[in-house]
């Protein structure tokens, strides 16, 4: 694991000298309404609408590392599912890496990487190495580039000892390192990390954080990170976007967020604020 | 194309690894082969030839179709897609840069080949030790049979894929699978060869897609298929194309309105 000096990250939200670049993620009025039918009497059923994401505006510049936070059920995962093209927005516009996620889903998929902390993107019964081989074909990674990347991540995330073990036999920490590698092998421009440190022990969390920070600095990969871990935000994110009840309640730099009090208090306040 | 071949190859390797499961499957298939054979023999005792098949043909049919259960997915239990929709893991599959239906076809084809390699020969061999068998020796006949099995497999996959997709709307494909299990088992000729059914029922059942899965390949092997190989292939391919097309439309609809379960 290559450790980096723990210096504060430059604030990438508003680069002072660089000319303004096109945002790699651009959402305007992004909304997702789920409908379900609820019982409303003996036979009658009524349509019930639930707005999971409510007119969110989001601009993320290339190379930013954004913490996307909010209490359970705030709409974080729904947003990420729309950003990957899995869910169709009810309204609003959305562009990621220059693509419309719904229309150009396949093209976009080659430019993004996703880690779902609570599920694995690896194949449960296959050795980790075979999952990577399948990903090479899925993303059409040139063999030389694939070998290079695999060697790099094997070293950086210490995958060597379990590369030939079936994924189902891996510990959570090992699986997560495998999942992170799986999301990065094809050199994506944008990576969504949905609770990548969930359930990890202190040492593994630290290792994953150091790795992500190094990745962001080294390659300029844009990272959108959802987490409930205040330390994740504090150690990694230069910018924080908080949502609650589907609406953005804070969007700004980490420094501004914790200017007055400690981050944990601020986050607790953001989480307990009642929806508008 | 390469991604689908790799997926099929890895899926095959995965299924070849489940040896004890395959052994248990072989034992079950063989035992039920005996039960079905005794039932058929009781019927053939009443009449020595039914629709061109004698008792040895009936025994052969029984064990041959037992051998086809696993690779052809006769139980219609859906594909491995169903459980992934149920748990929400399908989110991972949905954002991959592949064609969703082809991806699941590749994985399921790997499973089918693995099942065929491990589970198809033993029931027939054991059956041949205890009952008269009438397997043809002509290699052409076997080639025709394998071709029909391939088409029948496509029909079976496209049906099971549709059943799995139902989970996008009902949250669980198992209810649907229970219905199609009963219907499919009867209509494919697993309970009684379709050719041994009352003629009117037979002529109707010969038109369902399930006929292409079990009955038609067997009839082609025995050389009793009316219309011969050409009809068998045309019939199976027509159903396969229709059902694959339906699966494609339903996949599109699911994409537009899915609710991926779980956070």
From TrEMBL, chain B:
It comes from the Bacteria. This is ABC-2 family transporter protein. Pfam families: ABC2_membrane_6. Keywords: Membrane, Transmembrane, Transmembrane helix. The keyword Secreted does not apply. The keyword Transmembrane applies. It comes from Actinospica durhamensis. The chain crosses the membrane at residues 21-44, 142-163, 175-192, 228-247. InterPro entries: ABC-2_transporter-like.
């Amino acid at each position: 694991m290559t450790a980096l000096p723990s210096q504060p990250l430059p604030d990438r939200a508003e680069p002072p000298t660089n000319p303004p670049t096109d945002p790699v993620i651009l959402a305007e009025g992004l909304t997702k309404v789920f409908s379900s039918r609820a019982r409303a009497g003996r036979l009658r059923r009524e349509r019930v609408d639930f707005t999971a994401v409510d007119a969110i505006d989001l601009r993320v510049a290339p190379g930013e590392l954004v913490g996307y936070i909010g209490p359970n059920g705030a709409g974080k995962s729904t947003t990420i599912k729309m950003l990957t093209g899995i869910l169709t927005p009810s309204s609003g516009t959305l562009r990621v890496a220059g693509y419309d996620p719904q229309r150009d889903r396949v093209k976009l998929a080659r430019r993004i990487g996703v880690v779902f902390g609570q599920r694995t993107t690896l194949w449960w019964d296959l050795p980790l190495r075979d999952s990577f081989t399948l990903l090479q074909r899925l993303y059409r990674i040139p063999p030389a580039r694939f070998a290079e990347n695999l060697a790099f991540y094997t070293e950086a995330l210490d995958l060597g000892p379990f590369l030939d073990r079936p994924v189902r036999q891996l510990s959570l920490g090992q699986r997560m390192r495998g999942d992170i590698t799986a999301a990065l092998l094809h050199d994506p421009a944008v990576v969504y990390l949905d609770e990548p440190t969930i359930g990890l022990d202190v040492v593994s969390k630290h290792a994953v954080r150091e790795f992500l920070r190094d990745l962001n600095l080294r390659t300029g990969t844009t990272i959108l990170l959802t987490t409930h871990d205040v330390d994740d935000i504090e150690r990694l994110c230069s910018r924080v976007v908080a949502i609650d009840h589907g609406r953005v309640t804070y969007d700004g730099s980490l420094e501004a967020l914790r200017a007055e009090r400690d981050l944990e208090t601020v986050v607790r306040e953001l989480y307990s604020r009642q929806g508008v | 194309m390469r991604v689908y071949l790799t997926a099929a190859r890895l899926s095959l390797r995965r299924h070849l690894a489940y040896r004890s499961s395959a052994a248990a499957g072989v034992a079950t298939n063989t035992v039920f082969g005996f039960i079905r054979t005794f039932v058929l023999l009781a019927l053939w005792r009443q009449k020595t030839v039914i629709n061109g098949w004698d008792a040895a043909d009936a025994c052969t049919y029984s064990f041959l179709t037992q051998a086809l259960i696993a690779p052809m997915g006769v139980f219609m239990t859906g594909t491995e897609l169903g459980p992934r929709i149920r748990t929400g893991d399908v989110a991972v599959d949905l954002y991959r840069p592949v064609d969703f239906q082809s991806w699941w076809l590749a994985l399921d084809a790997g499973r089918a080949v693995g099942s065929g390699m491990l589970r198809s020969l033993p029931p027939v061999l054991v059956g041949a030790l205890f009952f008269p068998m009438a397997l043809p020796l002509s290699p052409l006949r076997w080639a025709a049979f394998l071709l029909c099995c391939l088409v029948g497999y496509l029909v079976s996959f496209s049906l099971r894929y549709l059943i799995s997709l139902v989970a996008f709307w009902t949250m669980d494909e198992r209810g649907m699978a229970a219905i199609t299990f009963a219907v499919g088992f009867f209509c494919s000729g697993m309970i009684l060869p379709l050719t041994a059914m009352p003629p009117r029922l037979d002529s109707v059942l010969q038109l369902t897609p399930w006929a292409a899965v079990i009955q038609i390949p067997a009839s082609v092997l025995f050389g009793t298929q009316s219309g011969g190989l050409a009809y068998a292939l045309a019939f199976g391919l027509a159903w396969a194309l229709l059902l694959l097309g339906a699966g494609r439309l339903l996949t599109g609809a699911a994409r537009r309105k899915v609710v991926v379960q779980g956070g």
